[in-house]
Amino acid sequence: GGARLRPESxxxxxxGRGIVDVSAMTIADALAFLGDLTLTKSQTIxxxxxxxxxxxxxxxxxxxxxxxxxxxxxxxxxxxxxxQRIRLASxxxxxxxxxxxxxxxxxxxxxxxxxRRLIGTLEHLRDLGNTxxxxxxxxxxxxxxxxxxxxxxxxxxxxxxIVVSAPPADVATHPTSLTGQxxxxxxxxxxxxxxxxxNKKKVLKVLGAAANNLKSIDVDFPVGLFTCVxxxxxxxxxxxxxxxxxxxxxxxxxxxxxxPGKHKAIKGLQHFDKVINIDQSPIGRTPRSNPATYTKVWDxxxxxxxxxxEARTYGYGPGRFSFNVKGxxxxxxxxxxxxxxxxxxxxxxxxxxxxxxxxxxxxxxxxVHYLDKTISDVLGLSVDDAAELFANHKRISRILKxxxxxxxxxxxxxxxxxxxxxxxxxxxxxxxxLAKRSTxxxxxxxxxxxTGLHFEDVKKFLAVVQRLTxxxxxxxxxxxxxDIIRTADHLIDLGPEGGEEGGRVLAEGPPEAIAQVAESxxxxxxxxxxxxxATGTTQQSTSP
Length: 544
What we know:
By secondary structure, this protein is an alpha/beta fold. It contains 21 helices and 17 strands. The chain has helices at about 5-10, 20-25, 25-35, 40-65, 80-90, 110-125, 140-145, 170, 180-185, 235-255, 290-295, 295-305, 310-315, 375-380, 385-390, 395-405, 420-435, 455-470, 480-485, 510-515, 520-535; strands at about 15, 15-20, 100-105, 130-135, 150, 160-165, 205-210, 215-220, 225-230, 265, 275-280, 340, 350, 440-445, 475-480, 490-495, 505-510. It has a 6-stranded mixed beta sheet with strand order 11-14-15-9-16-17, with helices on both faces. A hairpin with a 2-residue loop joins strand 1 and strand 2. Helix 16 packs across helix 17. The longest helix is centred in the N-terminal third of the chain and has 23 residues, at about 40-65. The radius of gyration is 26 Å and the shape is globular. The relative contact order is 0.12.
């Protein structure tokens, strides 16, 4: 009957409940059940340590705001923020001391309200006698830290140095630290001079959205505006945008074979000619794929190499400079530059190719140069360096400019897709769309694009989003970053809580309107930022 256990296992009960019943409880209900258990003296001796462990782990899950989740909730249905905090719980529920904890952006997917709970948890771990090292871009987390190590001054070849290592207050006053400038308010992410107004005749309307925890809600997305969907983790944002809007639009506009979540109807798709979902999935799953091939700039670079005097002398065409087909590539590694060593019981290891030493091409191909660079040298260039090299080539320059616009000037053209972060992959996808001729009728859907972005990166990214919207396109974004949320034209705030306590539309409208809604946690977090902006005081990026 879906219980996954034999009748004998299901028949064992404690406190009148079987294991299937307890698994179906929410974390809050499970805590109450364990707290109310009445045990005999002998049972207490057996269960004491177990109950202590169970209550400790459940209490941790409660403290990071996951009381609404059921214990048997399938992993794939969890949002990014929920998954992150559950992984934290599995590591931290034991309350060890003398441990070094290293966390990589634990604030990903967390609403500002949940973020404060997470900071409290990390402070608790520190107070127990542990050391906590966090890689983070969140300003509130930085302000709460005891010590900051700021790397820079730029990214890629312009970085790799420690700009300042000091308490947050000292970093904030450091003259050359970009992070410090944003923490102190000397630099900020500018607010738009005016917000675009919705056209009531041009609306993407979702009727009766009831996927997962959504409460049969009707939602209007204004066409031609930059809209952010906000709310605490588990409020139903992904269910609405990724589960209903994107699949329904993709079926209608792109003829995709995907099934949208439960809803009655979706109207207004005639205002679009295509839908683009820019998510954080990898741009490729092998070292062979890279930013150059994904953005199609490699096709133009190969054609350019084929026009050189040396290439024409040897009779080489563009195919000679491809590492995906026979001819010019190194056949030992088949153009990958690395060979895969399969490790039993461990992840596969990639080592540089013995024949080409990672160059990817054979010696005959490497005889051809463009401005003293071989085709292998070009793959090793950063986007910024390549933009200088190909400054006189209009098509190549235009594509590289889009990568620079989204803040990826430091990424190497030939960097293996497997080594790119989710945020980098998402921005490479965005740059590919920017390089195409805009029709002004595209629906762009982005899921937390601020992941892994510094304040300066967010500033560049927002300029790109505003440019897309200025061209008449519609941008729908799931986001928790307050710097991005406050620059949107329109907000759709879901909540008030996560799980069964969420799934309702709390408020719709510009950020100023959301800030006036008493039960909105997003509005509560926005209010001080919008107030600062209105009074003309220095804007401090997402300060606590």
